[in-house]
Amino acid sequence: MSEEEFDYDSLLNTAYEAVPETVKSGERFEIPHVDVMNEGKMTIIRNFTEICEKIRRDPNDVIKYLLREFGTAGGIEGRRAILKSRISESSIQARFNTYVETYVICSECGRPDTELVREGRILMLKCDACGAKRPVTVRKGPKPADKPKGPLVVGNIYEVSIEATGKRGDGIARMGAFTIYVKGNYRKGTRLRVKIEKINGTNAFASAVP
Ligand SMILES: [Zn+2]
Q: What's the pTM value of the predicted model, to 2 decimals?
């Protein structure tokens, strides 16, 4: 067994030990529900500051994200958020879920006790519960539809870009809500095709393919 393989396995084990407990026991953090009301062409999120408090994020950051995602104007009024388009509650919930998965949930332990820290030009999500740190993939441009959607599938091949390097050189990539650990030694910025070998929660383990 090469050193890389050993390191990959220990990484795998660490992730396994950290994640399944919360998944199995059903203690996974539940994303707060949005309380949405449509009024004419307006959409009002009635419990906006409350749900932001629950995920410990600045309401100004969250509203900015939602407005960008929906390509609409709006803002915060008191404890409510107003969007100047008619958007269904389920659409708002879906985008809010994506926000939480991207900017709040620790992909190692599944807890929401995290904070955003900037390291140079990279926004990192730092977990207060388990100490894990991962880069946040911030979408550039207003077209989220270009991003692959839906869950990863074991056995499928995806093209990824290495965004960070694990302690032992493993490549760390992200796709949607998933963190993909790529067995081997990869530098940041490397683009490669990987085959998904295992998925656990939002962690996926992959190896490079030609
Ligand atoms: Zn954690």
A: 0.55
